Amino acid sequence: MNGEKKKMVWGSQVGVILAVAGSAVGLGNFLRFPGQAAAHGGGAFMIPYICALLLLALPIGWAEWAMARHGGRKGFHSGPAILGLAGRGRIARYFGILAILVPMVVYMYYVYIEAWCLRYAWEYATGGIQLAGPITDQTRDAAVFFDQATGTDKDGVLNMSAAFWLFVVSINIILVYRGLKGGIEKFCQFALPAMAILAVVVLVRVLTLGTPNPDFPDQNVLNGLGYLWNPDFSKLGEFKTWLAAAGQVFFSLSVGFGVILNYASYLKKKDDLALSGFTASATNELFEVGFGGLITITAAFVFLGVSGVGGGFGLGFKTLPVVFAQMGGAGRWIGFAWFFLLFLAAITSSISMLQPVKTFFEEALAITSGKAIAAVSVVCGLGSFWVMWFSKDMVALNTMDFWVGTFCIFLLATVQIICFGWIWGTENGARELDQGALMRIPRFFFFIMKYVAPAYLLVVLIGFVLSDGRAEFAALRGNQVALYTMILVGVVIAMLVVMVAIGERRWRAAGLDLDGKQP
Amino acid sequence: MNTAGWIFMLVSLTLVWGTTIWAYTRLLSAPPQEAQSDDDE
Fold first, then answer.
1. Residue A255, C-beta contacts closer than 8 angstroms, at least 6 positions apart
2. Rounded to a whole number, what is the distance in angstroms from the first to the last CA of chain A?
């Protein structure tokens, strides 16, 4: 839209797919999915999981790809502008603020977790994590190391992880500043294959563990796999199983995140959308089910038994170091491979969160890319510093994660699918998706997009709020850090509202079709 | 691991590996697109 600016483009179709897949593949694929599956029916969990994939995540993802490219052709690349176009007016445009709020706030805490991953990888590479003695001592030492490294034991502590945080934040800024083709795409073209190789290395080691402790013959690889995959069909009758599956698929695929809205807006009219969206989702599923579903739980079960397999992040950062310690000399390098894999998974996601925010600053304020990334770095840096400073029991992190990283994602997805199915129209959407398509999306998916996905989303949204919302509301009342964190989020929302108002005035003055009135 | 566990695991793995391989094969075997002018955008 700014003729004076250099056009942002992707280098290749595979490049954009790897960037979207990199955005989707994150810590949740390796840490959250296996825990959710094991807790909600094991192999039977795959039934609601696949239903949610086909009825929710895939259709909403396609809707995002279509609305984004349509917006890009009209000169818009940011969530509020694109949703204003598809939603034909101001209400959708202001709801589109969610497409900036979500990546912006999630980035604030995600980049800190990313710094933990890099720190753990570094400690393994340099021999800094050495657990010895009985398993109980190792478990205690691993937990103490985690508390100290992450600052979960008290507020206001800046330790070595802060240095890693600064380093990680700098890499993110540099990659996004280098642009789509020279920064994000180039990095993902290296990172995704590297992640696959690291995952295969760790997987092979885990699957060849056999029965490492003859005193516990039941703790073997097959029983470890069985712990995750043996189906418990009784769980299918519980609403929370379906809720958990929908939540897992949803967060895993990065739909309702504002990322695809930005990334796909740089595609050209005859570029493929349908197969690209499908391929990015398939890649994410490969990492989630193909690797995540075989590594973490199995490894923990083999060495620690049933008692060692609980908890998402706890499993990754507290339990697995104990597991690696049982692997002898190779454990150090398997530990390094594991945490570097998590770091790569995290950074390909975090750069995808920074990019839509940067684009919005450019588009709304008509500033250069350099000024936009500088402004975004300051705002996100301050928010991230808040999370790092108020680290006790991860209250700030958890507050942001629930209200923005969970609730707002559902809300944004609902807004998007309503804009797509009911305002812009599935006919327009189908036409956009068919343009340049390398695969034809079966027509029943448009019925799903219009009727099934919004209804499914509303049920999930209400169920989610009822199941988890009360505890989070109570936390806001009872904890000052949680309350101030929400005020911080409120300030960010106010800032984004002002920016949309400024952008709206500019876009109108420039004669752009910001309400989607022209065909 | 019981028989049902094997079935669920193998079917799931076949699905994710199969769809990924199918998708990339289809993508990479597509004829190269002609250069698109700015008018096409």
1. A57, A60, A61, A64, A413
2. 18
Inspect the interface and report whether the beta carbons of A225 and B1 lie closer than 8 Å.
Answer: yes
Alpha-helical segments (H) within A366-479: 369-389, 395-402, 409-418, 426-434, 444-447, 453-464, 470-478
> ipTM, 2 decimals?
0.89
Burial string for A283-298 (b: 16+ CB within 10 Å, else e) reads: bbbbbbbbbbbbbbbb
Chain B residues closer than 8 Å to A286 by CB? 16-17, 20
CA–CA separation, A470 and A130 (whole Å) = 41
Give every CB contact of residue A27 below 8 A, 6+ residues apart in sequence.
A113, A117, A313, A316, A342, A345, A346
| pLDDT digits 0-9 by tens, A341-351 | 999 999 999 99
- Check if the beta carbon of residue A405 is closer than 8 Å to that of residue A485: no
**A199 in Cβ contact with A293 (< 8 Å):** no
Rg (CA), chain B: 19
Cβ of residue B3 closer than 8 Å to a chain A Cβ: no
- The pLDDT, as a whole number, for residue B36 is 60
- Cβ-proximal residues to B13 (8 Å cutoff; 6+ apart), any chain: A289, A290, A293
How many A×B Cβ pairs under 8 Å? Answer: 91
Query: What are the Cα distances from residue A336, in Å, to A320, A333, A419?
Result: 11, 5, 45
How far is A338 from A177, CA to CA, in rounded Å?
28
Burial class of residue B36 (count of CB atoms within 10 Å of its CB; 0-12, 13-18, 19+) = middle
* Residue A312: pLDDT over 70: no
pLDDT of the residue at A349: 95
Measure the CA–CA gap between A26 and A22, rounded to whole angstroms.
8
